[in-house]
Amino acid sequence: MSMVARLVKFGVGSVIGAGIGAAVGTLTAPEDGQSFQSSIRQRLRDAKEAGARAQADKQAELTRKYRGIVEDPDALVEETPSQSRAEAVVALGQVLNAPGAIAARQAADRDADDASIKTDRPLL
Question: Cα dist. 121→29, 109, 110, 116 in Å?
Answer without folding.
Answer: 74, 19, 17, 9
